[in-house]
Amino acid sequence: MVPLSETGQQLGKTKRSGGRGLIAKAVASVSALATLAGGMALGMVTAPAASAANAPTTSYDRTLGNAQFEAARESYGLSKEMDYGAILHAWMWSANTIKAHMEEIANAGYTSIQTVPMSTIKGPEHGGVFTENWYYVYQPSGTGIGNKVIGTEAEIKAMTEEAHKHGIRIIADAVINHFTADWNAVESSWKDSNNFHPDWGICGASDEYSIRGDAINYDNRWQVTQCHLLSLLDLNTQSQTVADRMKDYLTRAVADGVDGFRYDAAKHIELPNEFAQYSPYYDTILPNGAQYQYGEVLQGDQGLNAPAYPALFDKYSTNGGGNTASNYGNTIRAALQDKNINSGRLGSLQGTGVNDNQLVTWVESHDTYANTNEYSSQLTAWQIRMGWGIVASRAGGAPLFFNRPQGSGGNNPRFAEISSLGDAGDDEWKHPEVVAVNKFRNAMEGNAEYLRNCNGNNNCLMIERYKTDGNSNNDGVTVVNMDGDKNLAGMDTMLDDGEYVDQVYGNKLTVSGKKITSGSVNSGKIHVFYNASNTPRASLAATGAKSFKTDTTQVTLTARNVNNARYSTTEGDAGSFTDGQTITIGAKSPVNTQITVTLTGTDQDGKSLTVTETFTKKDPNAVVSYTAYAKKPVAWDKIYAYVYVDNNAAAGSVIENAAWPGVLMTAESGACDGTADQVYEIPEDIIDKAGDDPIRVIFNNGGAGEIPGNKFPADSAVTDPDDHVDAAGLLIDGSYVWDGNVTSGKWEEASCLAVTVDSVTISPAGTVNIDLADGGTAQLTATVAPAAAAGKPVQWTSSDERVAVVKNGVVQGVAKGTATITASVGGKSDTVTVNVTGEAPVVHDTTVYYPASKFGANSTYLHYRVNKGGAAGTWTTVPGVKMEAACDGYVKYTIAGTEGDEVEFVFTNGSGTWDNNGEKNYKASGANIVVENGTIGSVAPCVTVVPVTSVSIAGGDFELKEGASKQLSATVAPANATDRAVSWKSSDASVATVDASGNVTAVKAGTATITATAGGKSTTVNVTVTPEIVDIPVQSVAISGTGVANGKASINVGAGLNLNAAITPSNATDQNVTWISSDDSIATVSSTGAVRGVKVGMAVIMATVGGKSASIIVTVEDAGPALQSIQITGSGVSSNKLTLAQNNSVQLSVTATPANAQIGAVTWDSSDTAVATVDGNGKVTAKAEGMAVITATAGDKHSSIVLTVSKNGSSSDRFSDVPAGVAFHDEIEWLAAVGVTNGYSDGR
User: Fold this and answer.
1) Which of 74, 264, 496, 715 is catalytic?
2) φ/ψ bin of 193: left (φ > 0), alpha (ψ from -120 to 50), beta (otherwise)
3) Is 178 within 8 Å of 232 (Cβ atoms)?
4) In what residue span(s) does the Carbohydrate binding module family domain sit (predicted)?
5) What is the mean pLDDT of residues 569-583?
6) Chain center to CA of 828
7) Domain boundary among 1001, 1026, 1051
8) What confidence tens digit (pLDDT) does each residue in 916-946 have?
9) What is the pLDDT of residues 881-899, one digit of tens each?
């Protein structure tokens, strides 16, 4: 048998199992948000550049949203869209190696670089060689960043910074499905079995080396997503904890400069709603700030919903998402091998329902190259290059160029071991033909395509890219000619008339009247015909904080391929500058002034360039306040304000006031000089987070945004749902008012004067104590000054809603802990600390609240079941129970007898329309369940304040000795009072103190009054403190115990000895004895004096108390020869077999080898207690006819016999043709007895 640690090293050596194995977005943030909001409207706007005041937190901010990056990208002519641009797979390159080659990579035309996984790993085990060593990076040991191949986290950061300087984006390979197979190598923080799927129970073993269920049926999606690929530890992707930790890793990688991810084994992770239990994994990890995310979803499995994966990746990314086009790669390689590159054969990218712009294409990948059961390594570099000419010239897909190790592949070994892990591979990635194709692709971004063979020859393929606008400078064609020179004259073409120059070999191609009139291509070459500009692109940029509150700020000036670069400012400064130079502005300007920076220069053709940027110097003492006023439409029951920052953020990263539909506006009669009746103040934190990005608001009635009449501004009407475009929210940068007209409303700057808030004060102040066992609520009030601002709506928030939640000033305790409650209005705020103690009483009934506006106050039904003790309950009869009107626009229903168990429920209007929480159902427990906009709360919307009438303290006056303490309890009447939070106070803290929970501690002799207050009512008790008792010191300590004499004792290895410590005097104050051993490797001692012999030798055992000590010497002696094996014996036992008649018993025992070895405790076990049982002393009782294995265990030694139970005590003959005595008679009888009826020769 191979030890577990060695078995783990053998697993996963082949990255994949055998056989099948494993329209441009208008505005990314708009479509992503519309998905989350169920149709809410957002606008199509261009995201501004990130500023220093609003530091980049996403890939988009650092790249397409950054003027310096854009200047670099444009100067190298790289593609804007990551889902289109060419990707260099820098396989096994270190971060330092990538950084060193960045200029070459940019000049070679690659939009992105894909790295190896960055997570912590076990190994590599064999230095820098590739063979049997490369796959360790695909078997993480944890979620730290950095490993022996890619380098340290600091080196990764330096690499991404260098990439962004060159306009290049970084895609990190990420292994998010599994860890290493070696449990011992897993990071300690991950060593929890709950973080992984069970080793066994779903899939069996694929071979003799399997240590976990890895025999996956790829037509069974449950097995694909739950079993252990190659016995690697499969992450429990149904666990929210695992999802949160993986998101943390990905978010940290983005913070280190990563722009996108390639998710290894993505199809081995279930989709969110693929199975009955919702999986939070993808919905949790994907909103990580990445710009582009794609998954390894190898095609060909039955039941695989391939299009759903790129839809998820795209939803949470700002620059697209996709799947691997493995089928197309197979087709390309087959075509290259037989030189049959027929246009019909290669036309479709074979996405199996996935859009072309959601595919990552390749000629080969690291899997097809490196795995021993794949074959692309046999293709020559020339064949790979021919294939690249095809995939990288296509309009669809993001082509990935896999960089092979140096001198490897083709006619050479798969791994020639010329280069090492961390080195750059061969130079094919920068071959002139490859570079020309890359630059052709970049130049043709957005163009259509047409594939045709060269005059009907299937060994020559033309990929035409065109616009049909009469301009030959933006058309072109790549010709991949695998065999024989070709004359292209006379062929039809989609290219505009003109002359096209081959960027590789200098050939020329002429087009007239959509016909090629002249041009030829050479055998075995790639020709790239288009009119590339020989002048490097010039760019100017000025970047910095668009607004600033300091006296000065710095602006970075960028000049790429620019001559005579100069700057000037409206502050009067001017001069020449170099790329990357910074200037300081603001010192000469007062606050609330705009400063314009103008840059000028010429490109290499002498063309003039001019760029201007404006920066605003703001008053640092000004309080920014944005207020939205509205007149509630007559048809709306409620009006919500959904506020968001328009910064092109991906779904999950949107800065918003709340999930759709936003926050309920506050009714205020006659607001804004009578022009409105609803008010909402934009939270100050949203204004701060927005920086220079615009803030927008959408008014709505809480319903679905795609339904006409539910929101303003409304979306444009379209007949085709696929053409639906969400309308932009209303821009707000001050006080504005909407007139309430849903169809043609006005949004105008408010004429009313806003009242400035001077202060907000919460009462009671300081610390508020809430006892869960005593109702768990407290009433807070906020006083706003001046009096003219007293009517302004107060926003209440809790710092930790896991501890306490707050609504309209009523605080509801949730669990033990501390939370900060904040009241905010008009840019001012106040806080109190809430201390929640006690245990909540058992909930007997549960009341469910739901907005009446959804289905109507008289037509809302609750369909539910109570899951008692976790077991699924019985659903109510459809449509459920009718809910009744509650208050504040809610309906409610009280479910009796829930006793704190989980309630699972959905809502309906009784006519087929349901709210089932996105097919996940709602699940919650507690006295109150409040559902609104898909979220669940516990504070009842109908708050009735019940005043406190009295407070009493149990027990009356009392005495305490100095240093002693006593827990007091206060009773608040009535029992249903709202503010039941009790505060405690001592009249003299020098005599006695009292903490927030009522615990009194005596300090010194004297008398103090303890006061308990709740809801404005108080009561008192007196505490008298008496002097403390004099300490009695320990004079001596002595050790005694069985066998202890003259300070010595002897025990055998493995034996024990109980010691006692006698303290003199017996009434000494300190009675706490500490035991220690001088050598735990020889003898250990517990905190109670229990000694255990470990190995032969001598150790000193010491007892210490009150500064006094005593010790004895314990000698540990050899217990005799070691036990080598045990053997079961007993009446009738022969050759490890025993036959018993039904209902008979026999006493078994064990013998030791050697005979004088100590056996110790023996445990007994039966493999089938229905056939026979065995008690703890070895007595076996035959129960029913059949066979069972009886096993005895002593320490790590085992012995077993096979017991046959028959009716009469003799061997059973179930088959007349298999009499007793023939070969395998007993085995055949056993198979029949246990019910085995068939099987397979291969063991399946």
Assistant:
1) 264
2) alpha
3) yes
4) 843-927
5) 94
6) 35
7) 1026
8) 987 889 999 988 999 987 788 877 776 666 7
9) 999 988 777 899 999 999 9
Which candidate in 173, 256, 296, 979 is catalytic?
Answer: 296
Within a domain: 854: yes
The pair phi, psi for residue 263, each rounded to 5°, is -95, 110
1214 is in which domain, residue-wise? 1125-1233
Q: How far apart are CA 173 and CA 171, in angstroms?
A: 7
Between 424 and 1194, the higher pLDDT residue? 424
pTM as predicted: 0.54
Residues 346 and 377 in one domain: yes
Alpha helix locations (H) across 425-468? 432-443
- Cα 1024 off chain centre by: 57
DSSP string spanning 116-139? PP-EEES--SSTT--TTTGGGGGS
Which amino acid does the sequence have at 422?
G
Residues 260 and 147 reside in one and the same domain = yes
At residue 76, the 3 state secondary structure works out as helix
Question: Looking up tokens 């704190």, which residue turns up?
Answer: 900
**Cα–Cα dist 132/13, whole Å:** 6
pLDDT for the residue 1160: 66
pLDDT digits (tens, 9 = 90+) for 1074-1113: 999 999 999 999 999 999 989 999 999 999 999 999 999 9
Cβ atoms of 1103 and 1039 closer than 8 Å = yes
Same domain, 170 and 96: yes
Could you tell me which residues come within 8 angstroms of residue 1060 by beta carbon, excluding any fewer than 6 positions away? 1039, 1040, 1041, 1089
* Among 375, 361, 364, 174, residue whose Cα is nearest residue 258: 174
- Kindly list the distances between the CA atom of residue 1201 and the CA atoms of 229, 947, 1133, 1157, 1170, in Å, as whole numbers in the listed order: 37, 77, 8, 22, 17
Chain centroid, CA 264 distance in Å = 15
Distance separating alpha carbons of residues 647 and 626, to the nearest angstrom: 18
Q: Where are the alpha helices (DSSP H) in 409-526?
A: 432-443
Between CA 901 and CA 846 the distance in angstroms is 9
Is 619 labeled as catalytic in the residue annotation? Answer: no
Min mean pLDDT across 14-28, 83-97, 160-174, 714-728 is at 14-28
572: amino acid identity, one letter: G
DSSP letter for each residue of 284-329: HHS-SS-SEEEE---S--TT--TTHHHHHHHHT-SS-EEEE-HHHH
What pLDDT digit, counting tens, does each position of 137-190 carry? Answer: 999 999 999 999 999 999 999 999 999 999 999 999 999 999 999 999 999 999
CA-nearest of 883, 826, 806, 889 to 639 is 889
- Indicate if 264 belongs to the active site: yes
Q: Say whether both 315 and 175 belong to one domain.
A: yes
pLDDT of residue 179: 98
In DSSP notation, 491-504 reads: -B-SSPSEEEEBTT
Q: Which of 270-274, 591-595, 786-790 is the least confident region? A: 786-790
Identify the band that residue 1237 occupies on the pLDDT scale cut at 50, 70 and 90: low
1052 shares a domain with 999: no
Q: Work out the burial of residue 746: count CB atoms within 10 Å of its CB; fewer than 13 is exposed, 13-18 middle, 19 or more buried.
A: exposed
Q: Which amino acid is at 591?
A: V
Whole-number CA gyration radius for the chain? 39
Average pLDDT of the chain is 87
Query: What six digits make up the tokens of 207?
Result: 């071979």
Query: Among 259-263, 804-808, 1125-1129, whose mean pLDDT is lowest?
Result: 804-808
- Clarify whether residues 1086 and 985 are in a common domain: no
Mean pLDDT of the 1058-1069 span = 92
Total domains, the chain: 9
Q: Do 410 and 520 sit in the same domain of this protein? A: no
Which residues, in sequence order, are CB contacts of 614 under 8 Å at separation 6+? 546, 594, 595, 596, 597
Is the pLDDT at 754 greater than 80, yes or no? Answer: no
**What pLDDT, on a 0 to 100 scale, did the predictor assign at position 1235?**
59
* One domain for residues 963 and 1004: yes
Asked whether residue 119 is domain-assigned, the answer is: yes
Amino acid (1-letter code) at residue 1185: E
